[in-house]
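JOB MANIFEST
job_type = single_chain_structure
chain_count = 1
residues = 370
[input]
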Amino acid sequence: MENLLRPLIVVGGSVVLTLFIGWATDRLLCKADERHPETSLWGLLRRGRIPYQLVLCAALLRGSFDRAEVLGGHRVGVGRVLTLVLIGGAAWLAIRIVGAIVDTSYTRYARVHHDAARVRRVRTQVSLIMRVVSAVVGVVAVAAMLLTFPAFRAAGASLLASAGIIGIVAGVAAQSTLSNMFAGFQIAFGDMVRMGDTVVVDGEWGTVEEITLTFLTVRTWDERRITMPVSYFTSKPFENWSRGTPQMTGIVYWHVDHSAPLDAMREKLRDVLRECPAWDGRAYGLDVTDTTPSTMQVRALATAKDADDIWTVRVTVREQMIRWLSEQHPYALPRVNTADALLPPNRANGRVPGGISPQRRAHESPRADR
């Protein structure tokens, strides 16, 4: 009976104590969250309750397993498994705690500062820092797990001795990967491109959706995702419409007839922009920028507060101006001239410079009898 009760008390007591401590900690976090609604730290810390309970249970079992006097022949193996679980759970818990602190700091910073560009820059830096911390904690956890095995301890000296050669070989083999990683740090702290920025890359217009240490994802206007290495943004030119101030100037072109009423078009442009909510009211204009034998090119300028609004302004102005011209001034639209051509003075009497009339030339042509 004692051999049966001892394992039940040790294992069951560890599990029950873990559940009780986890429940009590969760209740304390809930009360702290209710008392301090201005910060989300306590609510974010609750996300770590699973790794927290895992660490507690593994620590309690690791410390009391010898007293259970069960699986005596496998005591070393069971102890090593519990140690591995404890290390993995501690790394998981550390990542959750760091993530909660970082998210809380970013939320507080975004609430205080109203500069959208600065907030996006901090968001990009925080995201990359969190990825680096997760990677470092994961590597340290794996190294600690490996050191629990005696074979890896014995091989530690030889591994350290050959670390220089392995580092050189790895650096040559992973040159592109390392360059992308350094480019990721350069983007994060160089303020070249940030999450949420509107960019044009290889003729594709979109918004930066995700930045990692090795790649960057751009979400296009038609909801496609373009994934590119971050080294592209440090080695090739690209357009960043959110750099500095997000205000933009949009251009709309029309080809109209030479008789188009330009003054009336300027007044209509002003009326269209006043009724368009996307126009920020800073500036507008309409000018003739080019001419052809049959048409002239008219350019309209309008401003907006960001890239999304400038697109709305452009399509609105283009559509309403074309509709207004077709309804009120149809003669101003491009036309194909079908009037009779005016003959030169030396051909007005029906004769050509050689003294032969066009009728006689047609009659004497070899094709006249066909």
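[summary]
The chain has 13 helices and eight strands.
The radius of gyration is 38 Å.
exit_status = 0
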